[in-house]
Design brief:
homodimer, alpha/beta, Carbamate kinase, 8-stranded mixed sheet, 4-stranded mixed sheet, 12 helices, globular
Chain lengths: 403, 403
């Protein structure tokens, strides 16, 4: 008998029919003998609707009140799913994030889980119940409701699985797994049957939309086995676990791209100690999330620093960088939002030289100019013009025979 | 400096504009020097929408899950109002029923308030905040969320006012006070400037729709001064307080009617001890709320018992009565849903003989047949055919010169 955490996202519980379909599926898992804990998101676009409502009412939108507001969405869906289970004669109980013991820090709207107490979850499991837990939310040590930010229910599911020692977390969503590339860009992209934790984390960080990157990080740190699968077709999806279990280790598993970033270049900076610390310290203070950072070797005592940040942070990031121009002695600060990041990821890459060369040769053959390069042991990312992004993904997907 | 509890119903906070208007009004009360605690309902028809959603998903609808579901409506409105206050620079904090210490029994969907702890409300007031409390909800001693049933936010407001020793509770709604009759039926009906607690309670029990009858009862028991007024025109409304303060004690204050009841007659019952106990015990067991009860003097050892119950309980009530027919030896059990109850209420009635005679004479002149009569010291109620109800209200309103 396995203990499995199921996660259902907004599209999986978007209406009454979908909620009943999910209840029915959970019932079948119970009959197979699984103990089931569910982490559930708000129905469909509920969170968006609540955010628009808040924007209509208020410009200040204090974080504590936003969290109370947004957390109501999961209370609705969890109560409805629990009722649908009751209709099927399946004992079930719903618990808010607070009741389930999801303890977070006090950073409203992007709280981090500090601890999962889970006593009421364990009691309800012991009593033979399916436990339906509100995703995306917790309670701070100061007893205020907090939310974990977009995609937070994935993290709730993985954190619950870790705390309960579950056999795995099954992340049910509107796609049937993790693909070798975005199927809208590469029609021959295929679903990956297995990934290692490290590969999934690199893919999520490089722009793969599901699951949420924090959940991937939590899964890797706490060694929680995942399965990403569809709540529409219910077919087997992508399993994520230890590297040694990944059969047929591919050199490259997937090509991932992301278009939501902009590049900032701080040019002609004197090559002296503390410049980067000053620059990135100022960005961190303003909550600007820096992704890639590239610094060239200095030439005549001066160097260029380029970095990418989310487009939505560009105004703040550019202003912060420009305000430091005199202080750090930079010649110029420029920005380009017309970029895309394309990454190839594969656990086999670290033991296979020549992967980078193939990437650069492939892009050169396509006349695609590379603006920035950044690597990890199992990932190579390049920044290209946005107009070249889809061609870059398609040519790399073909070059590494991922189709 | 007064401490005032404001209650805002669903229509008062139905959309973003209305929420901002309410915030603005609370701001003016603060500038006048009032300390303000708000009890707020869910926006507009939110509770209806959630109930329909539950009906779409589930036929069993367990009470615990229904309460979790329905309580989310007030979390949304309270967070939005608090944000709107923050925009105006007014320190404010929202509290759920549980956080505000509204402790109830465990009767889901119609819980009764046992105690209002209110420590967090007092702390927030002491810190200079407007405190926005979710109406309609509390927490059971078993730590589950409960709801108080329809109209529950009125009770939340009055219970908070009592617990905090507030100067009064102002019940803001979509009507501008309590009227001498329903203005849709009697166009000359006028707003009553003052009512005693006892009069208000009788009026609510007799069918006056606002405020909720449990709130009126709570106000009388705990001597909480009320003002019923409009959140659209903000004009002065109806004040409710001790009888001795009601200026110009009218013999009759208002005519109230109600059409949602049905009459059940258990005919030819042997006049012996315990028959009524058996009959009404059985109805109470089935949660049928009996309103008027009339038993005639017995004739030849047999009597008729008539009572009124809500139309929605008619099937259950009739079944319960018929199942006892043999046991209590009744000749027949009949029902009539085509009735209306018309009541006149006035604190001055008890010292003015002849009021009942005027009622019966007025209805006789109108050729309106009276099916049942029931009285209290300050109320006379009659049951008539539903088709005669409006004429009965109009003629009584004129006869007692209430226009």
């Amino acid at each position: 008998m396995a203990l499995v955490v199921h996660k259902y996202g907004g599209t999986s519980v978007a209406d009454a029919d979908r909620i009943r379909a999910v209840a029915d599926y959970i019932g079948r898992a119970r009959r197979r003998g699984d103990d089931v804990v569910v982490a559930i998101s708000a129905m469909g676009k509920t969170t968006d609707v609540l955010e628009r409502l808040a924007a209509d009412v208020s410009t200040s939108r204090p974080g504590r009140e936003m969290d109370l507001l947004l957390s109501s969405g999961e209370r609705i869906s969890m109560a409805l799913l629990t009722m649908a289970l009751a209709d099927l004669g399946i004992p079930a109980v719903s618990l808010t994030g607070s009741q389930a013991g999801i303890i977070t820090d006090a950073s409203h709207q992007r709280a981090r889980i500090l601890e999962v107490r889970g006593d009421r979850v364990r009691e309800a499991l012991a009593a033979g119940c399916v436990v339906v837990v509100a995703g995306f939310q917790g309670v701070s040590t100061g007893k205020d409701v907090t939310t974990l930010g977009r995609g937070g229910t994935d993290t709730t599911a993985v954190a619950l699985a870790a705390a309960l020692g579950a056999d795995r977390a099954e992340i049910y969503t509107d796609v049937s797994g993790v693909f070798s590339a975005d199927p809208r860009v590469v029609p021959s992209a295929r679903r990956l049957p297995h990934l290692s934790w490290a590969e999934l984390l690199e893919m999520c960080a490089a722009g793969c939309p599901k699951p949420d990157v924090r959940a991937a990080e939590f899964a890797r740190t706490h060694q929680v086995r995942l399965e990403i699968r569809s709540s529409f077709t219910w077919e087997p999806g992508t399993r994520v676990g230890p590297e040694e279990e990944v059969v047929e280790q591919a050199i490259v598993s997937a090509v991932v791209h992301e278009v939501g970033e902009a590049k900032v270049t701080v040019a002609g900076v004197p090559d002296r100690v503390g410049v980067s610390a000053t620059l990135f310290g100022a960005l961190a203070e303003r909550d600007v999330n820096v992704d890639m950072i590239v610094q060239n070797t200095s030439l005549e005592g001066r160097t260029d620093i380029s970095f990418t940040i989310p487009v939505r942070d560009l105004v703040v990031g550019l202003e912060a960088s420009r305000s430091l121009r005199a202080q750090i002695g930079a010649a110029d600060v420029t920005a380009d939002a017309d970029i895309a990041k394309v990454s190839i990821i594969g656990a086999g890459m670290k033991t296979n030289p020549g992967v980078a060369a193939t990437v650069f040769r492939t892009l050169a053959d396509e006349q695609i100019n590379i603006e920035m390069i950044s690597t990890s042991p199992i990932r190579i990312s390049v920044v290209v013009h946005q107009a070249d992004a889809e061609r870059a993904v398609q040519s790399l997907h073909a070059a590494f025979k991922l189709g």
